[in-house]
Amino acid sequence: MNEEFQNHQIRDVIKINYKYTMGGQSKFFIELMNNKRLLGTKCIKCGKTWMPPRINCSDCYEPANWLELKQTGTIEVSTIVWYTTSAFIKAIPYGIGFIKLDGAETAFLQGIFSENLVPSKIKKGKRVKAVFNKKRDGKMTDFFFVPDVEYDNWISKPEYEGGV
Ligand SMILES: [Zn+2]
Fold first, then answer.
1. Helices then strands (H, E): number in the chain?
2. Is 90 exceeded by the pLDDT of residue 72?
3. Which string of b and e fits 98-132 if b means at least 16 CB within 10 Å?
4. Sheet of strand 38-43: strand arrangement
5. How confident is the model over 96-149, as pLDDT tens digits?
6. Ligand 1: distance of its center to the CA of 5 in Å?
7. Measured in angstroms, how far is the CA atom of residue 85 from the centroid of ligand 1?
8. Cα(140) to centroid of ligand 1, in Å?
9. Distance from the CA of 45 to the center of ligand 1, in angstroms?
């Protein structure tokens, strides 16, 4: 690229109707949507508890059974999001992080919301709790985490509610 190079950009819209399946992990999304339950899986051979759920253990490839996990957990790693897609732009700045739910041995990526967000509120080791949208579609965006000390504030908002 030389100094005279300039990207030519055209703003446009692509609209596509499509559907996709969650396959063997559908049960996770159905329980999330209908019952606000967070399901992981437990390997029948080695006993490792997976979250996100694995239909087969990723360590020993044996089948894994569903089990319900607690809705509290610990932040393993996190960052603050300042640039995002149109779907989340109203939420910035917000946190994302890998959360290890209590009872799980693996962590999964999820949003972490906090009022007056600063890095120290969502740093490694901080405790979080799941908050659910009242209107759920069976997607990962049906819930998010908040610092446990903010939980009561979040579930008192009209659009959100606590889990089971
Ligand atoms: Zn296993």
1. 2, 9
2. yes
3. bbbbebbebbbebbbbbeebeeebbeeebebbbbb
4. 49-50, 38-43, 64-69
5. 999 999 999 999 999 999 998 999 999 999 999 999 999 999 999 999 999 999
6. 53
7. 36
8. 25
9. 5
Ligand 1 midpoint to CA 81 (Å): 34
Find, among 99, 95, 113, 111, the residue nearest to 51 by Cα.
99
Centre of ligand 1 from the C-alpha of residue 143, in Å:
28
Tell me the C-alpha to C-alpha distance, in Å, between residue 15 and each of 12, 18: 10, 10
Read off the amino acid at residue 41: T
The pair phi, psi for residue 112, each rounded to 5°, is: -125, 115
* Ligand 1 midpoint to CA 50 (Å): 9
pTM, two decimals, is: 0.88
Ligand 1: distance of its center to the CA of 164 in Å? 28
With a CB cutoff of 8 Å and minimum separation 6, the contacts of 153 are 115
Q: What is the largest CA-CA distance in the chain?
A: 61
CA 93 / ligand 1 centre spacing (Å): 38
